Amino acid sequence: MIESFVTHTLNGLYYGFILFMIAAGLTIIFGVLGILNLAHGELYALGAFLVFSVVGFATGLVASPTGTVSAIVFGIVVLAASLAAAAILLPVGAVVESVFVRPIYERDEVYQLLLTYALLLIFIDVMKFGWGQTPVDPGVYGTLNRIPTTELVGFGYPSYNVIVMLVGLAVFGWLVWFFDRSKTGRIVRATAINRDMATAIGVSTDRTFTLVFAMGAFFAGFGGAMVSIGPGTAFLEMGLDPLVLSFVIIVIGGLGSLKGAFVGALIVGVISRWAIWLYPPVELAAPFAVMLIILLFKPEGLYGTWGEIE
């Protein structure tokens, strides 16, 4: 019983870190731009498809692992290729924001929803054209599990899951540093708080908004890349569930709060995996039930800031 509890809790943390990488991008975009991006899930799926091609190319340049050291080198190559695949979404996000999203900032929210839904359909067709309708798999999951991690302390758990959790922690730490310590991050926060004042002191809001949307696209794609190198496959409909859960997470954590997105993602991840373990029929309902309970006591979410990235 205890071993099952520990295993399912770790699975929940792993799933939570995946959700955080997706929800972080959505939080950044909504917190600064005020855009509910319905195409965010397809950016996640696009990252999963891109990593299939990029990782396939990169791993073809290195020898198949034969020992611990070569397995670690292989893992580094896979992570670097995943970052490269997600980086392709930086210009994609920049073009989407500057060409499609920017003209509707001052329009009613209905236009934003219609536009991003149209982009969702376009991205699905792009993925269908580029990779077909058959699910794809980079096939590196088994090799990543050769990297010794929990075995060093006498506990058997997939190394891939451990890698994802460590990467998720690194992403959270980098985002906190970026928005709290870096000059660019402070400019983004200032723009989120007061756009008019930021413009008055010489900040280019157009460039800031493009950067923010590109960052959001990158983290969505990186989440998809980390999923695709795991036991799952990349398929056309994979963006829907993470998109819905990402909205649940940012509501639980509080709009515009990265800390809230982090805590909310871990809560949703653990609750959903506990639900699968204890009573599978409530897997989908459990995160929404948690959201409702939290909103009853804290309508602004756990760390709600209403319009400021924090």
From TrEMBL:
Gene Ontology CC terms: plasma membrane
Keyword check for RNA-binding: no
Name the UniProt record assigns to this protein: Branched-chain amino acid ABC transporter permease
Locations listed in the record: Cell membrane
Keyword Calcium annotated: no
UniProt-listed GO biological process terms: amino acid transport
Coiled-coil segments on the chain, per record: none
UniProt cross-references to Pfam families, sorted A to Z: BPD_transp_2 (PF02653)
GO MF, one example: transmembrane transporter activity
Entries under InterPro entries matching the protein: ABC_transp_permease, BCAA_transport_permease
Bilayer topology: Multi-pass membrane protein
Listed transmembrane segments: 12-36, 43-63, 69-90, 110-131, 160-179, 209-231, 243-269, 276-297
Keywords: Amino-acid transport, Cell membrane, Membrane, Transmembrane, Transmembrane helix, Transport
Family the UniProt entry places it in: Belongs to the binding-protein-dependent transport system permease family. LivHM subfamily.
